[in-house]
Amino acid sequence: MKKNFYFWILCFSIFALAFVSYKAIFFNFFCGDDYIHVAWLHRVLTHPDLIWKNFYATWLDDACSLYYRPLISISMVFDYLLWRGNGLGFHITNFLFLILTGFVVFFLVWELEEINQNANSGCAQQLSNLSWPFFASGLFILYPLHPETISWITGRVDAIAAFYYFASLWCYIRWRRTDTRIWALGALVGMTLSLLSKEMAITLPLSFLLYDLLFLHNRQKRNIWEILVSECPFWILLVLYFVVRRLALGTFIGGYDSTLSLQSDLGQYASKWLHGLVMMAEPINSAIIKPSNFLCRIWTIGIVASIALAACKLITSRTYWKTAIFLVFLFLLCLLPVYKIFDISSDLQSSRYAYFATVPLCILLTIGLSSLTTSVSSRTQSIFNVLKFLLGITLLFEASILLSKNNSAWSVAGHQANAIKHSLDQILSTNDIRPVFLFGAPDNYKGAYIYRNALVGMLSKPEMTPLPRTQIINLAMVPFSSIKDLIEQYPQSIRVYHWNDYSNSFAQVKTPRMLFPKPQTLMPHQNPNRMGGSRIAHPDPSIKPLLWNRPSSYSNVSGFPQETKPSLPKDYLLIHGALRKALNYDQGATITWQWSKNDELSMDSSSENQIIHINPDKILRWSTDFIALEISAKDKLSNLSELKAADLHFSNNLCTDQDIQSTVTAFNGNEVLIFPLRNNPEWTFGNKLDHLDITLPPVGTLTLRAMHFISADQVMPKLQLPAGNSLLKNGYVNIGRQKNASLMLRADANAINGAKALVMEITRANQAFEKANVPNSNSILLLKQITFTSALCKVNLKPSDFPKPGMYQIRFVAYDQQNNQVGMPSDSLTIVVE
User: Fold this and answer.
1) Neighbours of 20 (CB within 10 A)
2) Contacting residues for 536 by C-beta, under 8 A, at least 6 apart
3) Which residues, including other chains, have CB under 8 Å from residue 93's CB and lie 6 or more apart?
4) Chain-centre distance for alpha carbon 9
């Protein structure tokens, strides 16, 4: 009786620790995708048929997301009926499913422990049988990897599906051990509910088969055929699920791209998996807690000690070998459905994909804490048991501390989401109905989702009443470069807002009111007639003159009538003076810099990064879409490929520090290191640059021959759409369902030096190019490529050109006669196929 009392005290302590660790998020309401669900739930009140539509159509009737999860929507409906727009009730539901899954883990481990001890249920009340279930379930409830699943309301997909998954597995084991059919029925019901919650449950029949092969086959002397026959109901249920899924979604696979192929090469894929497994073992948000922190070290010591105890347990007690094998394979089965997307970042983004797998992981980590005894004759054994118990308690307390810290990000994210919604209310409170473009709002706070996919729900009922008349476009979801030219053509027809972290609100930024001629290449020349331009004198006679090919007239400058062409400022032609006047540099201990007679900058570094500071004054950021460096290299480099690690950093009034990675391409017949800035609204709309630096990796001797500030029409195909398109209004264009629906596009690369052909690239459904205006390094993302044997082409896209409804991106890339890519890819155009 006394032992039972202590046991319940410990259970209550686990619950209290979990509540304290999650209490900060109970009142932070909604984040990210939560707003989409709230908008759908509001519509359900007047259209209850939407609930049942989830059973025979895509989840939330979203054609771009081929998921079949009707049970999740039903759970949301119950919460909304009870709590309406109060997020507290939704968070309580998530938390309760975590606790319920912890109970299931307790009983599941209890069964495994009894199998290992060959004990009947009568001895299950002994402390020796309860230690392993207690620590396994406690560690699962407090595991620091779970905030994304529990603290994020949309994360309940995994929380609910996992509860039914492991409840089904527990019922199945009970059925096999007791031969009572009610447990078999429970396993079928649990599997059905898990399948209706998330696709992860498709591995349940395999876990049943694994258990039977390891335990039932030898103990009850049943042959394989007899085992398979008894499992038939579960396999039939799985087949029926895929049939229903095919009828509802139009595909057996579903997901975002409806394919089984990998989304990266094998090297990247293996690297992501390895990093994800490491993050599972050390679930520490590095954006909150530094790896050198004392808490991280204590956790690592606890995990290593647990693994060591587990190894000792398996060495000294062979009866646990089969259980360990079962748990390892169960761990792999839990990760199998997410094999394509398993990638946990250092700030724990996407950690929900590992939620299922943490159940067998926690059971394995605590297997060394099993069979604790208090009445033993050996004093050494008693001390060892006490140390194991203290290790288990320490591990639980450490987990709760890390969990609380990881949850702090979600608490802040909720407040940030509310601030964004409040700022939107202020923007829409005016009578101005011009389209609004938003950028700079935080996508996440240290891994906790804030703005991602939230805007649509924030602008819908019940969050926004009445509905706004103004179209609002989120530049985080639409390539800014694709609408930049339209903004230039119609600067007074739109409004642009940037998120201000200091005021915690959107602030309006100026749109371009004066358009300057496009900048040409800025580089030193000794021959003043080389470009046919005019010589620009400089006060310092040691500085070589800068030549700039000034246009003879402004007749080609769009947007201004002839009589109102703006005059250029006198110092516009001296943006940087000569090349050496444009640059400053860090003179490090191992870096030497020299100017040659040809006004070229040579630098040498074998161990330190080389930093070039560019004078940022008066750079026309709107017209500068790319910055390119002509560099020749010696020693370690035969080409520029090793310089792809170069970075450009800038800061202005809109951002404290932006990092732009480089790529290598051909420009004017030369191979250059180029930094794409066209898709960066912070660069374009910022007022004055505070600093502009380029960091080159330590690769030996380099010579900087020239620096180019390039406009888009010099290096990338120009994409033209028909008049009256919806790009400026929506940020994307539609190809509708009506008969003869199509989209006419025109691509022109004649302005690119050497361009002789064009290739149109189309991504897979609901995929996007890795980077805008940068050559694609991941061909797996591409649906197809279409070649045109001219630098000018027209194409008429129809719904039949796409395999299924969804969101696609297309762009054009120019090639020369030798089939080498020249310049940069065109702007990416987002197309929605209905």
Assistant:
1) 12
2) 545, 546, 547, 548, 573, 574
3) 75, 79, 156
4) 41
Distance (Å, rounded) from C-alpha 524 to C-alpha 193? 71
Using the predicted structure, report yes or no on whether residue 483 has a pLDDT greater than 70.
yes
- 635 vs 500, more confident: 500
| HEC secondary structure over 438-465 | EECCCCEECCEECCCCHHHHHCCCCCCC
For Cα atoms 633, 637, 640, give the angle at the middle one, nearest 5 degrees: 75
Q: pLDDT per residue over 453-477, tens digit each? A: 888 889 888 888 777 878 888 887 7
- Three-class HEC string of 105-143: HHHHHHHHHHHHHCCCHHHCCCHHHHHHHHHHHHHHHHC
Sheet holding 718-720, edge to edge: 718-720, 743-748, 792-797
Non-local CB neighbours of 63 within 8 Å, separated by 6+ positions? 805, 806, 834
Mean pLDDT of 277-284: 94
Looking at per-residue pLDDT, the higher value among 733 and 327 belongs to 327
* Token reading at 314: 């398996």
Tokens coding 87: 């997020």
Asked if the peptide bond before residue 462 counts as cis, ω within 30 degrees of 0, the response is yes
Q: What is the average per-residue pLDDT within 780-787?
A: 84
Q: In what order do the strands lie in the sheet with 505-509?
A: 472-474, 436-439, 495-500, 505-509
Q: How many CB atoms lie within 10 A of CB 785?
A: 12
Comparing CA positions, the residue from 354, 335, 342 lying closest to residue 281 is 354
Q: Residue 523 CB: number of other CB atoms within 10 A?
A: 22
For residues 222 and 231, what is the distance between their CA atoms, to the nearest angstrom? 13
Q: Would the pLDDT of 632 be above 60?
A: yes
Helix (H, G, I), strand (E, B) or coil at 549: coil
pLDDT band at 570 (very low <50, low <70, confident <90, very high): very low
Q: Which of 516, 750, 482 is nearest to 624 (CA)?
A: 516
* CA contacts within 13 A on the Cβ side of 538: 19
pLDDT given at position 224: 76
Distance CA 11, CA 23 (A): 18
Q: How confident is the model at residue 525 (pLDDT cuts 50, 70, 90)?
A: very low
Name the pTM for this structure.
0.84
Please tell me the distance from the alpha carbon of residue 537 to that of residue 673, in angstroms, as a whole number: 29
Q: Give dist(CA 632, CA 701) in Å, integer.
A: 9
Residues with Cβ within 8 Å of 333's Cβ and at least 6 positions away in sequence, in order, are: 203, 206, 207, 210
Nearest in space to 359 (alpha carbons), one of 154, 172, 16, 112:
112
**Euclidean distance between CA atoms 747 and 813, whole angstroms:** 10
**Would you say residue 537 has pLDDT above 60?**
no
Vertex 766: Cα angle to 763 and 767 (nearest 5): 45
Q: Residue 101 CA to chain centroid, in angstroms? A: 27
Structure tokens given for 804: 């299924």
- Most confident stretch, 140-144, 288-292, 593-597: 140-144
- Distance, in Å, from the CA atom of 677 to the CA atom of 681, rounded to the nearest integer, reads 8
Which amino acid, one-letter code, is at 163?
F
